[in-house]
Structures
1.
Amino acid sequence: MDMNFVAEKGLVLLGCGKMGSAMLQGWLSDGLPPASVWVIDPHPSDWLRGTGVQINADLPTAPGIVLIAVKPQMMGDALPAIAAMGGGDTLFVSVAAGTPIAAFEAAFGADSPIIRAMPNTPAAVGRGITAIVGNANAGAGQMDLAEALLRAVGQVVRLENEDQMDAVTGVSGSGPAYVFHMIECLARAGEAQGLPAAMAMQLAQATVAGAGALAEAADETPAQLRVNVTSPNGTTQAGLEVLMDAQSGLPPLMEKTVAAAADRSRELRNDG
Ligand SMILES: NC(=O)C1=CN([C@@H]2O[C@H](COP(=O)(O)OP(=O)(O)OC[C@H]3O[C@@H](n4cnc5c(N)ncnc54)[C@H](OP(=O)(O)O)[C@@H]3O)[C@@H](O)[C@H]2O)C=CC1
Ligand SMILES: O=C(O)[C@@H]1CCC=N1
């Protein structure tokens, strides 16, 4: 099975907000024909209307894939529209934070192939990363199909068990927001040191994007890349002594940040 299968059998996207549109944008750029896509969303955006996909139209009875991208709290209202597609070969993929596979088995039947996924918004530019885990009925072919679909918008990792999804959500699902906030903070700190706002933002954005690209491309670890920037008794060392402080620096703050997000993911299990 591959992406041609999705183009032939059709993809239904339930919920096309920030995450659904980020992925759809990536798939359409990757060549998925708009005619193969059906979107269900109460308030379609102008961008969505311009893509040529079918919006709130009659749905195929047995699409290749149904991608569920509504908020966990909306699940109860949203799933009935697609419940009849369960029990056959249609593969259900949910990107919802928190909502467990068991909730989808209850909605579509335990004999349906169901995959839970946690992507992130850099999928819009083909630079996402998604973790996936399937139920007992998601066979190797279906896991490969989901991986092929998600690989079109970035990297894919497979989890050993569903419990790991809360930690993944805290690290990479929510992670882009932490990095965007770091850009905001770095730019603001540059302004505080006397730089014009636009220039401070350009410096901060390019620094984070460039450091990320180097971290991915280089053979060295991020720790070594950090050392490479740090001249003994130089400017970076002075900055890192603040940032890396074990009590007040980034290490304890990041640990608390990821723990709070993962805890919220665990809480969301009961919000469907
Ligand atoms: N944003 C992110 O970075 C990530 C999000 N996720 C997950 O993706 C899912 C969507 O999140 P996100 O895109 O941020 O949220 P959004 O609110 O942006 O998107 C959800 C979309 O679903 C629509 N919707 C609401 N009710 C229904 C319904 N009954 N049927 C069909 N569509 C409906 C909403 O419309 P309206 O706004 O008009 O109500 C909205 O367009 C969540 O479960 C989230 O946990 C996962 C990884 C990352
Ligand atoms: O904030 C959220 O709940 C979703 C899940 C991961 C990113 N956004």
2.
Amino acid sequence: MDMLWNGWGDPARAKRLPESVVGLLRDMLGVTPRETPVPAAPDDIEVPPTPLSATTLAAFAEALSGEALGGQEHERQERRGADRGGDGRDGAEPGWGRYVRTDAVGRVRHTRGKSTPDLLRLRAGDVTDLPAAVLLPGSHDEVLAVLRLCAEHQVSAVPFGGGTSVVGGLAPEGARPFVALDLRRLNTPPEIDEVSRTAVLPAGLRAPKAEALLNERGYTLGHFPQSFEWATIGGFAAARSSGQASAGYGRFDEMVLGLTVATPEGGWQAGRAPRSAAGPDLRQLVLGSEGAFGVITSVTVRIRPLPVRRVYEGWRFASFEAGAAALRGLAQDGPRPTVLRLSDETETFIGLAHPDRIGSTAPETAGCMAVVGYEGTAEDTAERRSAARKALTAAGGTYAGEEPGEHWARGRYDAPYLRDALLDAGAFAETLETAAFWSDIPALYEGVRRALTDTLTEAGTTPLVMCHISHVYENGASLYFTVVSAQGEDPVAHWEPAKHAANEAILEAGGTISHHHGVGTDHRDWYAREAGELGIRALSSVKAALDPDGILNPGILLPAPAPAPAPAAGSSSRTPSVPSSADRP
Ligand SMILES: Cc1cc2nc3c(=O)[nH]c(=O)nc-3n(C[C@H](O)[C@H](O)[C@H](O)COP(=O)(O)OP(=O)(O)OC[C@H]3O[C@@H](n4cnc5c(N)ncnc54)[C@H](O)[C@@H]3O)c2cc1C
């Protein structure tokens, strides 16, 4: 099943906001329903024909079908493309074989990711970041072949996993047209090594499938981000993802032991032992590279035995400060639960920790609610639970029973559906995240909240700003903010100054521009300041070695290369960075 094209997930699970919440939004935030009509289906959107030439498309089709197209067939395909103005709106017969799609619906479905501005732009029918075609390679070698062709034909390539990026990671920049490399066909079953407790997972495997296949063999990966139901293994590695059970299982990058990568310069493999002293760890160069250095085609991960017991419980704290101190105690001195999540006062009151109680005045909406979970053997969970209870009680926490924790666990993947319902109701809802050392957390929390609140209030839409901690470390934690407000006349333009102010506040308070969403295009300028001029130069040299023509994700993570002057007659095809006239949009 494909994800809802202009929202989240499975359309059958769409939520409607209860009338009480609609009333609350109107009374608290001035949210009113929008009158602007929204395209009902992707083919309601006007889509320009693909800018790629028939020669380029035929070359892709040949690389992906495994069979050369004969001269006559090639001509026939070209005629068919021209007959329908090149856009192939009938997705069933795209014209260039099963694995090269130029139809409008396929291209719209691969336009941008799933941030709120991404969804609002699509809802407004804006397809300026439309790929020229969608390619579906079926193996590492096919990815290599496609990348070589992209360099030869001067077409950019954007690896597309689950399409859940929230940082502009699927919207490249630069003058060239680009193809989306949808990796869903890289989905062979895991190769499990039970002795070493590792599994090789293909990059295009979606997380639920990967988890189910491991579960069948008695193992788990333990990676459960909120985007779990749609994101892929390759996307987790490319964006350094972090799951809701990171306190127990670690971040995704901590699970990775090896990666196979396809680049325009050839394939390479990073990681041949769990740890090595043989030079810098090249795995770390691939993790978080967001498709700018190569296409990850498979990932070797550490796996853990499937837990026999899972239990989640609620704890209440008088304040966010007190709750954060309790979480820090567990992170530094143990015992370490598997899930640790603390909502601030506003998030607890509004009920994101418990969405069906939004706006209620029940006593459990007072103070701050924490969810603490344990997964493992019966003995291990019981031991950690009992020790953690003592520590949390000593830190001022009040045990709230299992119900808040179990409720959180049941609804843990539902919040993105709530965002769609908020957008439908005319509200704006977006999230952003960061991390810092514990000593910087209070200033970071206050600084980002103030930046968001002040900017949106000055623009006439006082927001609700909520926050939680859901990834903790011995030395620091991640802060995750949710903002809800009225939309403003142009909702994307209205949000931009607030997001800008929040990014500035993050750097000002010593935080990182992203703990787990990544850099993409949205955070690139702040990342450049965080990494420093020399750091960016070093990364640019790595990119130049792996992707000399700059075809992979231009403008994502690193600035897009400036267009080079047109090559002199007879010069190598490697130098130009502008498309041939046939391929220019
Ligand atoms: C509602 C929602 C909730 C989310 N919750 C979380 C969360 O809890 N934790 C978290 O960490 N993130 C979260 N995210 C962000 C997102 O899901 C993650 O960044 C995820 O890792 C992206 O995986 P994907 O397969 O969808 O990748 P995509 O979105 O398809 O791609 C992400 C980036 O990586 C590149 N890329 C993708 N696959 C490959 C590959 N095989 N090789 C090289 N580059 C590649 C893309 O070009 C793009 O730049 C959330 C997003 C949404 C919309």
